[in-house]
Amino acid sequence: MYVAVKGGETAIANAHRLLADRRRGDRNLPAITIEQLIEQLGLGVDRVMAEASLFDRSLAALALKQSRGDMIEAIFLLRAYRTTLPRFGTSKPVETGSMQVERRVSATYKDLPGGQLLGPTFDYTHRLLDPSLLEDGMVDQAVERPGTPDHVMRVSDILDGEGLIEPDGEMPEDHVAGDLTREPMEFPMQRDLRLQALARGDEGFLLALAYSTQRGYGRTHPFVGEIRMGLVEVELEVPELGFTVSLGEIRVTECQMVNQFKGSAKAPPQFTRGYGLVFGQSERKAMAMSLVDRALRADEFGEDRLAPAQDEEFVISHCDNVQATGFVEHLKLPHYVDFQAELDLVRRMRARHAAEMNRDIDKEAAE
Amino acid sequence: MSELAAYNFAYLDEQTKRMIRRAILKAIAIPGYQVPFASREMPMPYGWGTGGVQVTASIIGPDDVLKVIDQGADDTTNAVSIRAFFQKVAEVAVTTHTGEATIIQTRHRIPEETLKEGQVLVYQVPIPEPLRFLEPRETETRKMHALEEYGLMHVKLYEDIARHGRIATTYAYPVKVHGRYVMDPSPTPKFDNPKMHRSEALQLFGAGREKRIYAVPPHTDVVSLDFEDHPFEIQTFDKPCALCGANHVYLDEIVLDDGGKRMFVCSDTDFCETRRAEGHTGEMLAPSQEAAE
Amino acid sequence: MQIHETSLTGGFTNPVLDSQNVFRTVMNCMAQPGTIGEVAMGVEPPAPLGAAAGAVMLTLCDHDTAVWLGPHLLTPGITGWLGFHCGAPLTKEKTEAKFAFAHHKAPLPSLMSFAQGTLEYPDRSTTLVIEVEALDGGPTLELKGPGIRTTALLSPKGLPEHVLKQWAKNGQIFPQGVDVILTAGHRLAALPRTCKISLKEA
């Protein structure tokens, strides 16, 4: 006789208890601390902040610990928290031109004011596993360049000075930057909202799209005008006080991609821009973002929209990994009601098919 | 960081609730039209009922009695999880009895018991756009709704007939609401479609990931799309429920052993339990209970 | 702006639960035209804004909703109350208003002069909240449409005449059109754009 399965609540509670157990792992080992994650797995923490759109290293590290290192799960945790936070105001746009640069490279000029500054990069490391990291060995102090200039000229400003590149983001004077976490999305989208979506977008998805533009699916002839990474000040204008308050500094990575453009009847030939800006140190993401940004501007330049990376609805609707993972993974939820409906239909169609076959056979036999 | 867990009544902040409430009112005023809303990130994954949860959180109050079902059952894990969420953040009374509930949040089913005036049925919707599988672009489908241009949908249904001899859509079967908008009823089996027509209850639909809210007010026409020569029809089951003996209800197929032995039981667990408590029995009901009669 | 004493008081005592309660009343009225709802809690907006109209304002208006106030309601006390409790921006442009509040003692502009929504976004239309003298005692209106089993009756007193005249037009442009909430003191009723109204012969 049949007894229906019950006890969902207990099962869930036990599953979560097991999860906590696995997360802690071997109790003889010290538990990993938030500080250790921030200090020693900082790029992972940066990615969580970037794609959760919340700059808080401690909370991002907590999310990473809670998620057992699952990046998208950590991003999701931090986003769900971000949603509940009240808004006090909107900061002034960060001035990346005044960035305290820790890294700055340009692929378009051999040398330039402010110089090329490699900073803490994996570039030119030989990817050989380093056994010394198995031990907690001594690490040499970093060599600091004396006297970092407080203003390093942007490469795009050099080109702009000659009129060789399109002006930087023209928005009407009274334009209020949109926020897709507070307003319903609508297509076609303004570039500010698109950039917000890309900045929150999945690094892997944007990387693949950016890569596809290099392989001919919406080619944009890109040059890295400049990548810079470092600290910028976040400022809030307080109308009641009549002045601007500094809220602190955040680390960001910015990429300005310089792309070819032939010009038109109205405009003389000019380079065009693709822009990427990401919380923390994440060059791959900033570069991918700037390539996709440029690809998505196809309509502005009268380019045919043929490739996936140029398709605004496709890119923006699918770049959010929290949405994507939720919907892909929801397939593991029970669907047996709908499946039953399909089963019933397939059985009926098969029965009809069989009946028709039999009738044909009978008919042939009769003939 | 220790201050993390101070959440508002029903989890959502008041500004978010106002935004959703405004969307709900417009949805009621334009039956079947999908109102865009700025869906929030919820503490459960997209695709797992975030739209329904946001709608419920925006309407629920301390006097409500909440029922949550998934696949018709109150005890499926996701239903248990969502019910526990509201018990925690809104401290509302919960029930498994359809008749006692003021708000019923559902995934994939409409209860068998006829809903009454004053009840609200909140559907979790994965893909709110009925035309999405025919036209993936929002910019296009929005135009089609604006112009009431639903030819593509009829073509699709007719192609089914040409290929399979019948309409091969068994769930999420499109309906026309108040003679105007073609609407996705969410992935309920088409068996449930007739229950939507002129229902006494208010039906609200929330799609979190897709950021849409829509509604069917009580006593509103909800007509399943069909053709004169191929009228809409619902599934029928050959046998009654093996536990409560009910006919004309939606049944789940339960596989009993490796040899392919199976039984069919009510998908609506509350309906089935109530019938059994009233003394109805099916052929597979445990003998101890039969003896108790 | 001068702050009026009345601007700071008279809001919800429990904003979270009170606004939930008012919303459910409005939702039920919108879902079942003809139903008269009651705002039971002690909301005291500055006169001549009625209690129910004030409660609707507190429940639905905020920074994101431009509000239009009819001439009789455009008082420093009410604009101050709207600013203090809701933070909602005032607008003079009727086509920009998400909500418009009007009073039967002043002429109401044509329904067509408010935001009608677009064919693609019919939800982007104004919701009018009109304070009438009473929700009963006036000429009996017969209501039909979604939310109503067969017919419903409503007898508002002091409803501006042109509302009825323009209502048929409002219905013809469906899915576009405005929605109306009628308030009278503590009571309210709703007329969604789908509602068909006819004057019942006495």
Automatic annotation (TrEMBL), chain A:
A Pfam family that the UniProt record links to this protein: PhnI
GO molecular function: lyase activity
Name recorded for this polypeptide: Carbon-phosphorus lyase complex subunit PhnI
Keywords, comma-separated and alphabetical: Lyase
Lineage: Bacteria, Pseudomonadati, Pseudomonadota, Alphaproteobacteria, Hyphomicrobiales
Automatic annotation (TrEMBL), chain B:
EC number: 4.7.1.1
Recorded catalytic activity of this chain's protein: alpha-D-ribose 1-methylphosphonate 5-phosphate + AH2 + S-adenosyl-L-methionine = alpha-D-ribose 1,2-cyclic phosphate 5-phosphate + methane + 5'-deoxyadenosine + L-methionine + A + H(+)
EC top class, as a word: lyase
Tagged with keyword 4Fe-4S: yes
Any Pfam family the entry gives: PhnJ
Keywords for this protein: 4Fe-4S, Iron, Iron-sulfur, Lyase, Metal-binding, S-adenosyl-L-methionine
Highest taxon listed in the record's lineage: Bacteria
Assigned protein family: Belongs to the PhnJ family.
Function according to Swiss-Prot or TrEMBL: Catalyzes the breakage of the C-P bond in alpha-D-ribose 1-methylphosphonate 5-phosphate (PRPn) forming alpha-D-ribose.
The name this protein goes by in its record: Alpha-D-ribose 1-methylphosphonate 5-phosphate C-P lyase
Automatic annotation (TrEMBL), chain C:
The keyword Lyase is annotated on this UniProt entry: yes
Keyword Lyase: yes
Keywords per UniProt: Lyase
GO molecular function, one term: lyase activity
Alphabetical list of NCBIfam families matching this protein: PhnH_redo
Protein name (database record): Phosphonate C-P lyase system protein PhnH
